[in-house]
């Protein structure tokens, strides 16, 4: 398993409340079942892809902001999701960067990645907050993760 993917798995292992947000992950009670879950691996890969897309789009700030705002807005529809959950990926991400870069990891690189991940996460939070202050929820009444409990009518509770 690639280091970052492993660290995203660790994120879910250490924060069971995140797994409980998704109906398909609620039965993954042990670390072993979490490591063996292809669906969880796919979700971890999606998290990684989101961060990768954000970093790769830093040269086009308009795309960067719109992309991350849309991802942030989508999370309003996940029943029980809280804006502070975005920040839980910060340390696993920074650890993965350090492990991946190994001897190329310097103090300067650390500062750059800390600033970058904070900018990414704050932009996600801003998107989430914009959905909370908007009168229209993202994507109508569609539910997230095929979980009827995650419909937009329930999503408003996340904004309190």
From TrEMBL:
MF term (GO), any: metal ion binding
Keywords tagged on the record: Heme, Iron, Metal-binding, Oxygen transport, Transport
Region called Disordered, residue ranges: 135-160
Biased composition range(s): Low complexity: 141-160
Pfam assignment, any one: Globin
Domain of life: Eukaryota
InterPro entries (alphabetical): Globin, Globin-like_OT, Globin-like_sf, Globin/Proto
Range of residues in the leader sequence: none
Chain ranges of the Globin domain: 1-129
Family under the similarity heading: Belongs to the globin family.
UniProt protein name: Cytoglobin-1-like protein
Species, as recorded: Leptotrombidium deliense
């Amino acid at each position: 398993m690639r280091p970052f993917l492993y660290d995203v798995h660790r994120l879910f292992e250490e924060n069971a409340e995140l797994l409980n947000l998704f109906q398909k992950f609620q039965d993954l009670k042990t670390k072993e079942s979490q490591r063996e879950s292809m669906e969880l691996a796919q979700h971890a890969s999606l998290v990684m892809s989101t961060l990768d897309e954000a970093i790769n789009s830093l040269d086009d700030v308009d795309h960067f902001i719109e992309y991350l705002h849309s991802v942030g807005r989508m999370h309003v529809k996940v029943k029980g999701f809280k804006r502070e959950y975005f920040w839980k990926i910060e340390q696993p991400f920074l650890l993965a960067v350090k492990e991946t870069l190994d001897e190329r990891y310097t103090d300067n690189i650390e500062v750059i990645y800390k600033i970058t991940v904070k900018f990414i996460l704050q932009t996600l939070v801003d998107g989430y907050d914009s959905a909370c202050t908007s009168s229209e929820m993202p994507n109508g009444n569609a539910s997230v993760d095929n979980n009827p409990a995650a419909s937009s009518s329930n999503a408003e509770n996340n904004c309190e």
